[in-house]
Amino acid sequence: MEKQQDNLITLHSRGPGQWQEQVRRLVSLSIPAILAELSSMAMQYIDAAMVGSLGANASASIGLVSTTIWLLSGLCISAATGFSVQVAHLIGAGRDAEARNVFRQALLAALVIGVTLAVIGVSISAYLPAWLGGEPAINGDAASYFFIYACALPAVQMRQLAGSMLQCSGNMRTPSMLNAAMCGMDVIFNALLIFPELSVPGFGRILPGAGLGVAGAALGTALAEWLTAALMLTAACCYSPLLRLRQKGQWRFTRTCLRNAARIALPMAFEHSVMCGAQIASTRIVAPLGTISIAANSLAVTAESLCYLPGYGIATAATTLVGQSLGAARGDLARRYARLSTLFAALVMGGMGVFMYLCAPFVFQLLTSDPAVRALGVHVLRIEAVAEPLYAVSIAAAGAMRGAGDTLIPSLLNLVSMWGVRITAAAMLAPRLGLIGVWLAMCGELCVRGLLFLIRLLRGKWLTRTLRL
User: Fold this and answer.
1) Cβ proximity of 301 and 70 under 8 Å
2) How sure is the predictor about 199, in pLDDT bands with cuts at 50, 70 and 90?
3) In 10 A of CB 127, how many CB atoms?
4) Can you tell me whether residue 369 is helix, strand or coil?
């Protein structure tokens, strides 16, 4: 309880050093969240690098279904956020017992949603690669990868929920540590499952491997997800001072909780569907360009995550700070945290964009041994680096608005930007410029999206969308 009291004192402080204190608070919450996002990115790099060593076809098979995986993962995040934002508001208002009741209801809802998504994913896994326009040479591996990932969706949902609850309670450190541990587990499992043997230069073979190739990468990631989900749930349900489930509490769903969850989660789910639907459409635009373009596109998206995942970490901190501020009836503080978060994200991602532009050749040396894939990937990645500051604005502003329960208008802005700008431009440019045209369209769209979110953030109407708890 002492940590929570400190948080509330920080939220209510009005002294002359309040600006410095707010910056300190934002940075202290952002750093663990950024590390958590970077650990997620590290898993993508691990899978891409390990599978990339098997050749362009192996990389392309994962790239083909990656956008659909993001869609399902995004739906998991939406469901978790629908409940965790309520917890942030209740904790900010000092209503800890009610926050735990929301957590109980969230656990039941997340279990149902995770299982439902898994059934859907398994059902479509055999047909998905062909629907996406994949070549016969890669469709078998792509189907296997997606099937195994779909089986892990209940774990993905529970990990997202428990981690989001811990973050919205102000505990960023535990999710960060567990997500980092998940990366370590992913490395070990992948090494044992992808290759026929585990060898170290200078020592030769040290352990036999399963030799499962692409399927081994999916299985390694799935095992890491299940173990991390168990640890994250244990941390939230048993050890969190604010969330720990005691004997007394309500598991029955309430109308208020479900209404608020739907109000937040449904627009977010719509947004993820729109975004990933556009990415799937982009995949179909890229697929006819050939295996080299598919592999370069997939690896460039993975490499770019080094730039934008810190922005998502800052957005997570913004959701917590804005939610707790509004729960404490401090709209002025919520506005300041939103603007600080957006500025911080733009600075961080702008710096990462410069780094990625300069280091793109080295990054692709790590990800693939194919020279054609390397050359094309470096070119498109450098195009994207230009858009990172405005991309950061859209990410952080959306996180701040999410903390206020405002998810509908951001979803509509993403719909207009993705389908009105990116897909239209990509469809026009791809036949003429190939993959470079697709990434030019992406770069332009991210700049447009950032400007749209900046206008909404500065106008301030999103602060009127507060929840009724």
Assistant:
1) no
2) low
3) 11
4) coil
In this structure, the strands spanning 204-208 and 197-200 are antiparallel
Q: Indicate the SS3 state at residue 290.
A: coil
Planar angle of CA 322, 448, 359, nearest 5 degrees: 90
Yes or no: say if 446 and 387 are a contact pair by the CB < 8 Å rule.
yes
222-238 burial, b for 16+ CB within 10 Å, e for fewer? Answer: bbbbbbbbebbbebbbe
111-120, 293-302, 311-320, 358-367 — which one is most confidently predicted on average? 111-120
Query: Amino acid identity, residue 332?
Result: D
Tokens matching residue 289: 């360009």
Q: How many CB atoms lie within 10 A of CB 379?
A: 15
pLDDT on residue 342? 94
159-177 confidence digits (pLDDT tens): 999 998 998 888 878 988 8
φ, ψ of residue 198 to 5 degrees: the values are: -105, 120
- Nearest by Cα to 11 from 450, 355, 393, 332: 332
Angle, helix 56-92 to helix 255-286, in steps of 10 degrees: 160
Cβ–Cβ < 8 Å for 230, 163: no
Which residue type, as a one-letter code, is found at position 341? S
As a whole number of angstroms, the distance between CA 437 and CA 434 comes to: 6
Would you say how long the chain is, in residues?
A: 469
Is residue 226 over pLDDT 50? yes
Greatest alpha-carbon pair distance for the chain in Å reads 66
> For residue 457, which amino acid is it?
L
In the predicted model, what is the mean pLDDT of the chain?
A: 84
Candidates 348, 447, 349, 461; CA nearest to 410 is 461
Residues 325 and 463: beta-carbon distance below 8 Å: no
Complete DSSP assignment for 220-252: HHHHHHHHHHHHHHHIIIII-TTT---SS---S
When comparing pLDDT for 391 and 82, which is higher?
391
Q: How far apart are CA 186 and CA 163, in angstroms?
A: 18
